[in-house]
Amino acid sequence: MKQWDTRQWQFPHGDHPCVIISPQARCANPDFKTVNVIGCSSQRAAREALTHEIVLDTADGMDWPTLARCDIIYLAQKSELQRRRGSVSLERRRALGAKLIRLFGFWLE
Q1: pLDDT 10s digit of each residue in the chain, 109 long?
Q2: CB atoms < 10 A from the CB of 98, how many?
Q3: Residue 109, in any domain of the structure
Q4: Is 17 part of any domain?
Q5: What is the CATH number of the domain that holds 35?
Q6: Which of 20, 42, 44, 85 is geometrically suited to a Cys-Cys bond with 61, CB 3.0 to 4.6 A?
């Protein structure tokens, strides 16, 4: 399990793709049973991403252009993360990281 992997997870609101955003040290350590994830839609994106979203696609392990919601971070049990779908592309890692920094106010101006 690695940071930026895309997996399938049973969210409280249903089964959807997700992106692991925990640091690699946490992902790789078997003593840690949980990781942080952001959720993705299961449906094809039919609109532009809102300010709290980013679009992922087949290069990131999705079946089609998919909205990922970046303003909510879930804590998932590693054992519950199902099928590995792929890994977020380098270009979108940068965009997703920047979006998280802005959304959570970590950006100092």
Answers
A1: 999 999 999 999 999 999 999 999 999 999 999 999 999 999 999 999 999 999 999 999 999 999 999 999 999 999 999 999 999 999 999 999 999 999 998 876 6
A2: 13
A3: no
A4: yes
A5: 2.30.30.110
A6: 85
